[in-house]
Design goal:
The chain has 8 helices and 20 strands. 23% of the residues lie in helices and 25% in strands. It folds into 3 domains: 72 residues, 2-Layer Sandwich (Uridine Diphospho-n-acetylenolpyruvylglucosamine Reductase, domain 2); 121 residues, Uridine Diphospho-n-acetylenolpyruvylglucosamine Reductase, domain 3 (2-Layer Sandwich), CATH 3.30.465; 108 residues, UDP-N-acetylenolpyruvoylglucosamine reductase, C-terminal domain (Uridine Diphospho-n-acetylenolpyruvylglucosamine Reductase, domain 1, Alpha-Beta Complex), CATH 3.90.78. It binds uridine-diphosphate-2(N-acetylglucosaminyl) butyric acid (EPU). The site of uridine-diphosphate-2(N-acetylglucosaminyl) butyric acid (EPU) has 17 residues, from strand 13 and helix 7.
Amino acid sequence: MLVENNVALQPLNTFGIAARAQSLIRVRHEDDLTAWRALPGWVPPSPDAPVFVLGGGSNLVITGDVKTLILKVEIAGQRLVEETEKGWLIEAGAGENWHAFVAWTLAQGWPGLENMALIPGSVGASPVQNIGAYGVELQDRFHSLDAVDLVTGQSFSLDAAQCGFGYRDSVFKHAPSDKRSFGLAGRAIITRVRFLLPKPWKPVLGYLDLERKMTETGISQPDAQQVFDWVVAIRRAKLPDPAVIGNAGSFFKNPTVSLEQCADIIAREPKVVHYPMADGSIKLAAGWLIDACGWKGKSVGNAAVYERQALVLVNKGGPKQPCTGGEVMTLAKAIQTSVYERFGIMLEPEPVVL
Ligand code: EPU
């Protein structure tokens, strides 16, 4: 284990924001955490001595140089744990790239993750915000995970119920002091994640964009590789590739409102995109709300609203003149205010702000 000092963070966040970390430790194995705890002067993480666990940096806005110690997860490895009548149980190290992992499972003949192709980030970050796309959420394929408690050094495992998954949410997004009594943000580091890919495989094709692909191609019974290819094509057409233009995916969560609130909005804005949820509430498309307020292409400094998807904020300055985290947050606040003034809805940001 090596403690690196004064580390450039620009290559470590998909927004491409330039900042430096005072110190960073690359965690390639659980033993690195033991070595870290054995360093002279080590103190357990606490609100006064916090640590930040960094994965692929794809859901992150950095607002300045970082004094907090960063633990960068780089644990590798992927394997089939067992195949049963129920499905394939597969395990991956938290540091594996998510999309490469999805592609690998398909190449092995283990379908089930194809709707979540091309989501930026690492395997270890996938449960943190319960990633999801095109009708499948991580929690639908999740089995369990291994983690290490940064305070006690103990390893532990969590099943889905213990992860407290919600829409783009889990216990790993909440501080231990949160009202949700079991927050693990800054307290635990995910080391390995296991997925159960159910048998028999059934394609999930209910999402409008996928239905369109079926009509366009005339393929009504696609295999998993076909769904994967469609999802990749849809995402490439709509969402900016972070390798080309920096971004952190959807910047806001899609808000949910009550039936009455929705009826009130529809009366004023008949075209509002809305989806009824199982619990009776209505989910609104945040991208539509932002778009309706005229934000596409608008910017604050070098932070801008993506022209093809108003839900995505981008770094239009590129690596040479990157936007700052402050510009991103100023733009985000202006968007929140305008959506609130027009629709009475306060959008909630999705990324973690550091
Ligand atoms: N829309 C507009 N204008 C826009 C953007 C969207 O009118 O500028 C409309 C679209 O036409 C569509 C609706 O809003 O009718 C929803 O848009 P889209 O289908 O693109 O999906 P989304 O709700 O914006 C969510 C996830 C994405 C995920 C896609 C596909 C959230 C916050 N975002 O986006 O996840 O890939 O669905 O399942 O839930 C991410 O979390 O980083 C992410 C990219």
